[in-house]
Write a structure and sequence with these properties.
The structure holds 2 protein chains of 2 kinds.
Chain A lengths: L1 E4 L2 H5 L3 H13 L3 E4 L9 H6 L1 H18 L4 E2 L3 H16 L1 H13 L10 E2 L1 H9 L1 H7 L8 E5 L19 H8 L3 E2 L18 H17 L4 E4 L2 H9 L1 H8 L6 E3 H8 L26 H11 L2
Parallel strand pairs in A: 1-2, 1-3, 3-4, 5-6, 5-7, 7-8
Helix pairs in contact in A: 2-13, 4-5, 4-6, 5-6, 7-8, 10-12
Chain B lengths: L9 E6 L3 H4 L4 H9 L4 E7 L5 H14 L3 E6 L2 H14 L7 E5 L1 H5 L5 H19 L8 E4 L4 E4 L3 H12 L4 E4 L14 E2 L4 E2 H14 L3 E4 L2 E9 L2 E8 L14 H4 L8 E2 L8 E2 L2 E2 L11 E2 L7 E2 L2 E2 L6 H6 L12 E7 L1 E4 L3 E3 L16 E3 H7 L20 E8 L14 H16 L2 E6 L9 H10 L3 E4 L2 E5 L11 E7 L4 E7 L1 E6 L1 E3 L3 H7 L27 E3 L9 H21 L1 E4 L4 E3 L9 H4 L5 E4 L4 E4 L9 H5 L5 E3 L4 H12 L2
Parallel strand pairs in B: 1-2, 1-3, 3-4, 6-7, 6-20, 7-10, 20-31, 22-29, 23-24, 23-29, 24-25
Antiparallel strand pairs in B: 5-32, 8-9, 11-12, 12-19, 13-14, 15-16, 17-18, 21-30, 26-27, 27-28, 33-36, 34-35
Helix pairs in contact in B: 2-6, 3-4, 6-18, 7-8, 7-15, 12-13
The chains are: A alpha/beta, B alpha/beta.
Chain lengths: 302, 666
Amino acid sequence: MKYSYFPGCSLKGLGRAYEESLLPVMKHLGVELQELDDWNCCGATAYMAVDEAKACVLAARNLALAERSGNPQIMAPCAACYLVLNKTKHYFHDYPAMKATIDRALAAVGLTYAGDTPVRHPLDILLNDVGIEAIKQKVVRPLQGLKVASYYGCQIVRPYATFDDQNNPTSMDRLLEALGATVVRYPLKTKCCGGSLTGTVPEAGIRMVYILLNEARKRGADCLATVCPLCQFNLDAYHAQVRAEYGDVIVPTVYFTQLMGLAFGLPAKQLGLHRAAVPFRWRPAPPEAPQVAAVAAALGSI
Amino acid sequence: MVSPKQDIRIGFYVCHCGHNIASMVDCPAVAEYVGQLPGVVLSRDYKYMCSDPGQELIQKDIAEFDLNRVVVASCSPLLHEHTFRNAVAAGGLNPFLFHMVNIREHDSWVHTDRQEATAKAKGLARAAIVRVAHAKSLPVKKVPIHPDVLVVGGGIAGIHAALTLANAGKKVFLVEREPSIGGHMARFDKTFPTLDCAACILTPKMSEVGAHPNITLWSYSDVVKMDGYVGNYTVTVRRQPRYINEELCTGCQECIGNCIYKEPKFPDEFNEGLGKRKPVYISFPQATPQVVLIDPEVCLNFRHGVLTDKCKKTCVEACGDRKAIDFTQKVETREIKVGTIIVATGFKPFDVKRIPQYGYGSYPNVYTALEVERLVNASGPTSGDVILRDGRHPQAIAIIHCVGSRDKKTNRWCSRVCCMYSMKLAHLLKEHTGAEIYNFYIDIRAPGKGYEEFYDKLNEEGVHFIRGRVGEVTDWAMTPEEEGKLVIRVEDTLAGFVRRIPVDMVVLATGLEPQADSQDVRRLFNMSCGTEGFFLERHPKLAPVNTFTDGIFIAGCCQGPRDIPDTVAQAGAAAAEAMVLIDKGYIEQEPNTAYIQPDCSGCKSCIPLCPYTAIAFDATTQKAVINEALCKGCGTCVAACPSGSIGQNLFEDDEIFSEIDGLLTN
């Protein structure tokens, strides 16, 4: 199993905790990743809204590089990258004019794109290539007693439901249960986090953050698990504003890969957990198995 | 008999079909072109060839111009070949000296360039002209029709068709897959818009079926094989073991009371799993036949369906001298002969789990419409008391229309009955519970007698109608009033904003789908399906109960979603169509049979190839012989004969080759 790894800007910047946890977890599972050489901006959200053709050309360059690299399966952990790469692939096949634009632009830099590059999300790879059983076998510190609300966000199953149900995705639920965690029922799992709004129309964005956090709290979740750097930042960084408007609702938001790392017994310090604004401090109930105590100890040392 | 070498005098007619053909094909130009082809004595274009004057024109021309061949270029032979053959025969020619060219379905309707379409019409006409010169006079073969009828499916369609035929004195076999006839209608509470009790109007018909001397009712059975052809079908029916001797069971049900299971324990199919039944049971009080059955999957005398004989068999004791219980029953097959078949296999409700955002299965108080039919029914699991799965009585109820219908992601079609049955359920639920009822609809479709008035009545009753496709059903509460409720999130497209409406109960108005095994049934009876999987009628307007296989008719929802009045009308029509054939007594067969020519070498290659075992070997002549009565004209032997010694009427080599020549030469 070898994949081209497309980090995108987030995983090298604001979302570096995602990369810090994803890479060791994948390595631990024997998944080989080769960072795409000379990758560029995926063309995500803002650019897509301004000029679709240019955004698609940007994304297509990455797809073309992946095809040329010999590891054509491209893994895009950031939900926005994942969506834009997928969208470009669809547009390439569906709209002849877009294909012509992309072909012309790529030809100018000596690249070609055949349109076959499978764009994969880490969740897809973990569930369908690695498999739940293989993941279970790596669990040394089961997350027993940890209640998680698995939050998929808006982008990884919509509009292209390539590996999970569009309206009720369950892949992260199954993964977290395999780690020993308890997944609470969370009906808002695919609702928008308000990520694009907190900066532009803050009162609307903060309200959406509040709704997501409050529902997770009401469901008894110790944390939200996310697959998207923007969701993580948005749900993590605005607790003060939420408090000012609606009162205290404190729920930490972690990457699902961080929870995987903990369950695999990887050192907490190397999983980027220290970067979050709202610290994730989970302590299991006292009469738990010694293994779990070890996890708690690991967590305490963050 | 006219020999092909005789002077050929062809009359050619091209039909305008109003604008249908004339708008895309230059008919006078086609007529002019064909008029100069060799052998053509007369070439005309005419507005409607199928009209009486059109047919009379052919007859008159045959006499006046001494025609001995006729070609008509018009619509599909499926529609009017018969018409024109009759016209030709009335003019004194053998009907098989006629040939038809389809320049409507094959040309004008499917092309957009007038010049090319006209050229194509000329080509097709030319091919027919050179072909028809080789046509031979042939006799029409008459085959008697078996007067018995098979009706497949015992819902209201099958019941009505069977009774209509039986009351007309025809013998009917009614085969039903479930233990009782009655179908979906037997499970409905009331019927729209009159609010007749469904059972009250259906069960008298059911018992009439059970008691009718002309009806053989085989429930818990299905058709596994069909052979033969119109008028002479051989059908194999498989009868599942009920472990009860139907002749001996009196329907007293004492075995049920004395079953080793004191309490009913297993999900009751008839009540959509809302109630419980025992391993020995009868589907519902008015089940027909009034015969119990034993479910070997859960009966203690079986293990995983295999007889172990380990139960105390208190049921057998209770049955006593009647001795109706027979644990040794096996699957039985019966072979019957019928002349015509009516397929009335019904529909399947849409599987609501395909729309997870409506929460069926996740939230206990989300129900399908069929479940609610049982819930409000006096003989249902709660005796008509609307108690939710969590024990509460609902104070607010949402009914979501078009679940699985009118949606590109699931089924594109309108299921036709959901608006009306949703309103019926709204009325009944309001009557039973006094709750606030919210209907969420895309459009209200109430196009039937008294239907719009029923909608008005509901509005007057204070039932709420909110126009908008529901986004989701959730238990995500945003206000204290929403806590513990199911929240409907919907865009109210009339008010123009997104609403959240808390309710206690959600009813999903499931659409109608083809049965899961409709493709198998289609193959079994040699029918066609539309893209959506419902059985295809021969013509959507003019032959709505016929199929493309003669003698096979369809009725009810297996052809497409429809309500009870339409189903009954269609079932009556199917019965009448079957009677047309039966009372005529014979069918005329196409003389398209194969025949052996004198140069047959007797190699026998054709014999095993014939799918109808119509070919035998004659030891005295050392040649193959074809039984004309069995030959279906499939042409397999004709193509396979190594010495080219098998010919086929209507499809002679010289006819086909000359047609190809005509098509390819300019």
